[in-house]
Amino acid sequence: MNYILKNFLSVFKKYRLIFILNIIGLSVALAIFLAIVIQVNYHLNFNKSIKNSENIFTLTIEDDNHNKAIMPRGIADRISDSNPHIKNLSFGWFYSDKQKFNLVDGDKLSESFYNNFYPVTKSFFDTFSFEILEGDLGNANDPNSVIIPQSVADLFSQNGSVIGKNIRISHSKNYVIVGVYKDFKDNTMVNNHCYTFIPDTENLNDMNNWNYTCFMTLDSKDNIEEVLSSINNMEFKY
After folding, report:
1. Beta strands in the chain (DSSP E)
2. How many alpha carbons lie under 13 Å from residue 40 in its C-beta half-sphere?
3. CA 221 – CA 85 distance, rounded (Å)
4. CA 7, CA 153: separation in Å to the nearest integer?
5. How far is the CA of 17 from the CAs of 9, 10, 11, 22, in angstroms?
6. First-to-last CA distance in the chain?
7. pTM for the whole thing?
């Protein structure tokens, strides 16, 4: 053993630069390999944590050879009843930049934090199988209510439960926290934002308000061609 060690040290002293270059090369190669493995794993498991994710599709409309992932509610409402394979259709507004939030405690405001704030339909939570940890969606048709991720609720854990408390957005309007949901993993199409609710009657049958991103859930992904065919055969007038 001593002979092997002495021989190694002798060779290392003689070819020190080559040894160092080899070690650096192997380290870089290993780092690149690990980065590739992490990225491939991220993509292979994208959305896998969402129940029935393979049956969820984002609806787009082709306009001037470009696909747009927005449409008016009038189109979305008609599509939802167009085929029996469509089990759920949800939509929301996903345009706002990060907003400034404060938890309201009487006349006091908590330390500020920033998050996105999106209005969605109640069916959105069914589409992506939100796991409600606290509270419920009983007031999910109230545009003055909000549901927040656990990571946000934890910011105020020292104050006890956040359910029923007010949260102020950008120093303007207060919303009542009605639910806390479990954070989604990073490699999903659902981000851990704060969500308020779109009333059932908002822009109902309206064909001109192009603000909604729509998500369609089928009973099976194998029926997508049939569903698309029935949608494309529909006539819409705006």
Report:
1. 56-58, 61-63, 66-68, 86-92, 99-105, 108-109, 113-115, 117-120, 132-135, 145-149, 166-169, 173-181, 194-197, 213-218
2. 6
3. 10
4. 61
5. 13, 13, 11, 9
6. 85
7. 0.79
Residue 90, amino acid:
S
Rounded Cα distance between 132 and 149, Å, is 9
Q: 73: closest CA among 91, 58, 55, 46?
A: 91
DSSP state for residue 171 in the 8-state scheme: T
Please give the Cα distance from 28 to 24 (Å, whole number).
6
Task: Compute the distance between CA of residue 191 and CA of residue 212 in angstroms, rounded to an integer.
Answer: 17
Q: Could you give the C-alpha distances from 3 to 12, 15, 19, 43, 210, in angstroms and in order?
A: 14, 18, 19, 49, 78
| Beta bridge pairs of residue 176 | 145, 166
pLDDT tens track for 30-62: 999 999 998 888 878 888 888 888 999 998 887
Mapped onto helix, strand or coil, the DSSP state of residue 53 is helix
The per-residue pLDDT for range 174-223, each reduced to its tens digit, is: 889 999 999 998 888 888 999 999 888 888 888 888 889 999 999 999 99
